[in-house]
Write a structure and sequence with these properties.
Helix content: under 10%
CATH class of the largest domain: Mainly Beta
Distance between the termini: 71 Å
Number of strands: 46
Strand content: 35-45%
CATH superfamily of the largest domain: TolB, C-terminal domain
Number of domains: 2
Oligomer: single chain
CATH architecture of the largest domain: 6 Propeller
Radius of gyration: 30 Å
Shape: elongated
Largest sheet: 9 strands, mixed
Length: 605
C-alpha cells in the first residue's frame, strides 16, 4: 500500500515534531498530565511519499501537551527477543494506563510476517501476539505473549489491574494473559474493540458493553450487559461510573446512566475514523481528547462538554504516521483512585484521577435570581452599593444568622468586589440542594455570590457555581439574609454538566404559592425578612419593622446608619426608618398596604 504525501504538511508545530522524528530527545521523561499517543510511522520512499507497513513495523509512544505541542517520545523495539511491532489497519491498538498511572499498556505482534503479507493474518504460532508497557522514564517491557489467541486476526487492546493482564481483539474474546496460565475468560463476544479496568472491574466493549465477571477474573466468567450502551472504538467512563463517552464513525457520543439503562443524551460531530478517547474528568467541564486515524491524515482533537454538543478543536496532525491510541502520560507515585485533597472546598470525593491529578467531583449549576430590595425596574439590574462598604463581609454572613452552610468555600478575596458593571457583586446568597422526595430535608447548603444581572456565581466572582455533591436529582432553593427564599417545584437532575435554573422567569415553577414577587413579568424574591422567622409581618410580635427602629434608636426614628446590616431591606447601604428610600415601607407594601396585619409566609417546606 502506498500513499503520496509531502513533508511540508507533516504536522502542526512541524519543526518541533521534526526534531523528534530525527531522534533528538526533547525531554528526559514523560511529564505527568500530558497526552500520550501510540504511533505507527509510515516508511518514507523516494519522491517524498510513504509506504504503509502491513507486515509489521516499530511503534512510537509520543507525548503531547494538552495544547498539542510535542515532547518526549519512546521508540518501541522492532527487532530482537523483546520486540513488539504493529501494522497499519483502521483500528490499531488502544493505549491504556495502569490503575496506578505508572505505566502505559498496549498490544502488538512479537514478530513480523513475510513482506507483502499482513502480520494480523499470520497465525499466533508463527507470530505471537503480545502486550507491551512503558513507564514514566520510557522503559519498555513485554510482560506477556500468546502463541494461541487472536490467531489470524487483530490484537486490539490490553488492560491491567496492575498485576494481571487481559487482551482483546478481532477474535478469541477476552483473554487472560498472565502472569498465570493464559485462558479465554469469555468468548461469547469474539470481537473486542475496547477493554478497560474500570472501578475495580474488567469492562469489554464492542457492539455492546459488558462487565466481564467481577473484580479481576483469571478463569472463565460470564458477561453482565451494561444496558443500552454501545462503544465502537472509544470508551471512557467517569469516576462515578454513570457518564460515558464513546467514539464511533464520525461521532462522539455522551451516555448517561439512569434507572439502570444507559441513554445517549447527545452526540458531538467528529472526523471520520475517530478511534480512541481519553477524558479529563477533573476539569469543571469534561475535556475529551481523541485520535483520528484517517485515510490521509491522523489528528488529535479536543472537545469540551459544556452541557450540549460542541465542535472540536484540532490540536495536532500528521500525514506521516497512523495515530491509534491515546491516554494520559504515566507518572510516578500516582495511585489512581487513592484519596487526596484537591484544595477545592466545592468538590467531594477527592481522589487521584487517571491523569495523576488530584480532583474531586462536583455538580455544576447555572442559577439566576433577583432580590427585590436592590432591584431597579429601570435598568432591569440590581444595585451593587453594598460591595463598596468597608464592612462588607469577606466571610459568608449566614452562620451568624443561624443558617449554617454545610459545604463549599466560605471566604472571598477583596479583589472579587472590585468588578463593576453587570457582573458586579451584589451580595452573598445561599444555594440549597434538597431531597427530591422529601423536600424538607436539606442535603447541602452552599454559600455563593449574586451579580447585578442575577447570575449566581462561585466565590471567585465569575465562575459557574460548583456544588460539592454527587450526581442525582435535587430540588434547588435560593435563600438570602433578608429576603424570603424560593425553591424549584420539580427536582432537577444535576451532574458535572451545567444545568440552568432561572428563578427570575415565570416559566420556572416554584414550590408553594406566590413564592416570588412579580414586577412587570420579572420574578423576584420578596424583601423584608429582618426578624428571620420565615415570614414577613409589619405589626404584632416578632414583626420585621421594629428591629429597624430599634437599631436606629427608638427615640430618634429619623436617624440613619451606614453599613452592611440585615435591617437594610433595600440594600442601599443605609438603614433608615423614615424618609425617602426607607427600609420600613417595603415591608408594609409586601404584606399589603391596606392590610398591615397580614402575614406573608416563606414558601419553603
Amino acid at each position: 500500500m502506498h500513499r503520496s504525501f509531502f513533508f511540508p504538511s507533516l504536522v502542526v508545530f512541524a519543526s518541533a515534531l521534526a526534531s523528534i522524528l530525527s531522534g533528538r530527545v526533547v525531554c528526559a521523561q514523560f511529564t505527568a498530565g500530558r497526552l500520550a499517543v501510540l504511533e505507527v510511522p509510515y516508511t518514507p520512499v523516494g519522491g517524498g511519499g510513504f509506504t504503509v507497513p502491513t507486515n509489521g513495523t516499530g511503534m512510537v509512544i509520543r507525548e503531547f501537551t494538552t495544547a498539542g505541542v510535542p515532547g518526549f517520545s519512546v521508540t518501541i523495539p522492532n527487532s530482537g527477543a523483546n520486540m513488539l511491532v504493529q501494522h497499519y489497519n483502521a483500528q490499531g491498538s488502544a493505549l491504556n494506563r495502569t490503575p496506578t498511572g505508572d505505566r502505559l499498556v498496549f498490544t502488538g505482534y512479537a514478530g513480523t510476517s513475510a513482506p507483502g503479507t499482513s502480520v494480523s493474518q499470520s497465525t499466533s504460532a508463527a507470530v505471537p501476539r503480545g502486550i507491551g508497557t512503558v513507564d514514566a522514564t520510557g522503559n519498555f517491557s513485554r510482560p506477556s505473549t500468546t502463541s494461541t489467541f487472536f490467531s489470524g486476526s487483530l490484537v486490539l487492546n490490553a488492560t491491567t489491574d496492575g498485576v494481571n493482564y487481559w487482551a482483546g481483539g478481532g477474535n478469541s474474546g477476552v483473554c487472560y494473559l498472565g502472569p498465570g496460565a493464559p485462558v479465554v475468560i469469555n468468548a461469547t463476544s469474539s470481537a473486542t474493540t475496547e477493554l478497560h479496568y474500570v472501578g475495580g472491574n474488567l469492562v469489554q466493549g464492542g457492539l455492546t458493553v459488558n462487565r466481564v465477571g467481577s473484580g479481576s477474573p483469571v478463569a472463565p466468567a460470564g458477561l453482565t450487559l451494561l444496558s443500552g450502551l454501545s462503544s465502537g472504538y472509544g470508551l471512557q467512563f467517569n469516576p462515578a461510573g454513570d457518564v460515558c463517552y464513546t467514539a464511533t464513525t464520525a461521532q462522539l457520543k455522551k451516555w448517561v446512566l439512569s434507572g439502570g439503562t444507559w441513554t445517549n443524551v447527545y452526540t458531538f460531530s467528529a472526523p471520520t475514523f475517530l478511534q480512541r478517547l481519553v477524558v479529563d474528568w477533573s476539569a469543571p467541564q469534561p475535556i475529551i481528547y481523541g485520535v483520528v486515524n484517517g485515510l490521509s491524515v491522523s489528528e488529535i482533537r479536543k472537545w469540551v462538554d459544556t452541557g450540549s454538543p460542541t465542535t472540536s478543536t484540532l490540536l495536532a496532525s500528521t500525514n506521516a504516521a497512523a495515530w491509534y491510541g491515546i491516554t494520559f502520560t504515566p507518572g510516578t507515585g500516582c495511585v489512581e483512585g487513592s484519596p487526596c485533597n484537591d484544595g477545592n472546598a466545592n468538590t467531594i470525593n477527592d481522589i487521584i484521577r487517571g491523569d495523576c491529578q488530584c480532583a474531586g467531583t462536583a455538580l455544576s449549576l447555572s442559577a439566576k435570581v433577583f432580590l427585590e430590595g436592590p432591584y431597579n425596574t429601570g435598568t432591569g439590574l440590581m444595585n451593587d452599593g453594598l460591595r463598596t462598604l468597608a464592612d462588607f463581609p469577606l466571610t459568608e454572613p449566614y452562620t451568624a444568622l443561624g443558617m449554617n452552610p454545610t459545604g463549599g468555600a466560605a471566604t472571598i478575596t477583596p479583589s472579587v468586589l472590585a468588578t463593576s458593571g453587570n457582573n458586579a457583586i451584589v451580595d452573598w446568597v445561599l444555594v440549597e440542594l434538597r431531597d427530591a422526595a422529601i423536600p424538607t430535608t436539606v442535603l447541602l447548603r452552599t454559600p455563593a455570590l449574586v451579580q447585578r444581572d442575577g447570575d449566581i456565581v462561585a466565590l471567585n466572582g465569575t465562575s459557574t457555581l460548583q456544588l460539592p455533591a454527587v450526581n442525582g436529582s435535587y430540588r434547588v432553593a435560593v435563600r438570602h439574609r433578608n429576603h424570603l427564599g424560593a425553591m424549584t417545584n420539580a427536582a432537577l437532575v444535576l451532574s458535572n454538566s451545567t444545568i440552568a435554573v432561572d428563578f427570575t422567569s415565570a416559566t420556572t415553577v416554584t414550590w408553594g404559592s406566590n413564592a416570588r414577587k412579580d414586577i412587570a413579568g420579572v420574578q423576584l424574591l420578596w424583601c423584608g425578612e429582618v426578624f428571620r422567622n420565615a415570614r414577613l409581618t409589619y405589626v404584632g410580635d416578632n414583626n420585621d419593622r421594629d428591629p429597624i427602629l430599634a437599631i436606629l434608636g427608638s427615640v430618634n426614628p429619623n436617624a440613619t446608619i451606614i453599613g452592611y446590616r440585615v435591617h437594610d431591606v433595600n440594600m442601599d447601604g443605609i438603614t433608615s426608618y423614615t424618609g425617602l428610600n426607607n427600609d420600613r415601607d417595603p415591608i408594609l407594601v409586601n404584606v399589603g398596604s391596606t392590610t398591615p396585619n397580614s402575614v406573608r409566609t416563606e414558601q419553603l417546606p
